[in-house]
């Protein structure tokens, strides 16, 4: 005889199902509000998929950068993490391809960023989802330039032109420094490539310290000692530790800030109407007028006990309508090729809209060398060595020539270790 289950039985069944939901732990950092936006969207996903529980653990960027490799090596890593230096942890990546309903959709729309997550050209795996495409460029305190009566350098201006203009503004307005760059080998790389740095030999092996690299590093060290450049941003940290110069810019202590498109949300929120800011064209060198591409991605790891559920969540985030909503919520340039041509309805201030357009306009000038560097498994080691050794030369601990020797040795050591 068929019996209708009691209310208590139904509650017990629901509780049992909930208790056995697949927990997906996600290590996340925010440039602006990425973790918060992902949490909001994931709540909707969980309503549609009650058998999956997404747990977003918000962390500092440096915490993920420094602790994630250690956690993964010890078998204690998260299921998914938001990372930028893919090459440092790609040996732990889970290939999502067998679990995706439509891998071709990913190749068509995320092909560029997928290549950054792969070990080499022969690797065809799909390991994660780009949470943004980033482009670096100069962010300008237009109010200070206007106050000083100095024109913002134009499309063909060199870094020498920008440095001279920034210093002129600083002196005219009593601003402590002309400019600052995030303490990052990634930020250094765009200008270095513009001055001819190749980073790799013809056979693909690292060959970082060439004439172009030395030229830009020498300029930077000189600027740090004549007031053009706020060297404390670089000299105040040790090793390869990342430190941005956002607060220096937001507090009006510099006229020009080299950072990137991921800062737009913070710029809007923290500066407000304190002063007028804008984004300029990437300065030139003799070889290019290049910034650096980049971006972060949610990558999945082999250690997860729930690969199918991880893939289902990432596939939902990657779907065109959800991804477009996500980019609008975070004010990021989409990594989705189909949405890069005006497919995102941003809710930005006029300054924010202009900034996104300016960063996007800088993208076509990005050098192929820049893309190659971002995709290299050694990129993290190259960035770390550059930040550490150039900082030491700025602060007078070593000479520029000693810095170049140590950069070359650091990267040779990293390359040798990677082969083991």
Give the topology:
Layout: H1 7-19, E1 22-28, H2 34-48, E2 52-58, H3 61-73, E3 80-83, H4 103-117, E4 128-130, E5 134-141, H5 142-148, H6 159-173, E6 179-181, H7 185-194, H8 211-224, H9 232-235, H10 246-250, E7 256-260, H11 264-271, E8 277-279, E9 293-294, E10 297-300, H12 307-318, H13 320-330, H14 350-362, H15 368-375, H16 379-394, H17 400-419
Parallel strand pairs: 1-2, 1-3, 6-7
Antiparallel strand pairs: 3-10, 4-10, 5-7, 5-8, 5-9
Describe this protein's structure.
It is a single chain. With 420 residues, the chain is an alpha/beta fold. The protein folds into two domains: 23-130 and 294-350, D-Maltodextrin-Binding Protein, domain 2 (3-Layer(aba) Sandwich), CATH 3.40.190.10; 135-292 and 366-419, D-Maltodextrin-Binding Protein, domain 2 (3-Layer(aba) Sandwich), CATH 3.40.190.10. Helix content is 47%, strand content 11%. It contains 17 helices and ten strands. It has helices at residues 7-19, 34-48, 61-73, 103-117, 142-148, 159-173, 185-194, 211-224, 232-235, 246-250, 264-271, 307-318, 320-330, 350-362, 368-375, 379-394, 400-419; strands at 22-28, 52-58, 80-83, 128-130, 134-141, 179-181, 256-260, 277-279, 293-294, 297-300. Strands 2-1-3-10-4 form a five-stranded mixed beta sheet. Strands 5, 6, 7, 8 and 9 form a five-stranded mixed beta sheet that branches. α2 links the parallel β1 and β2. α5 crosses α6 and α8 packs across α16 (379-394).
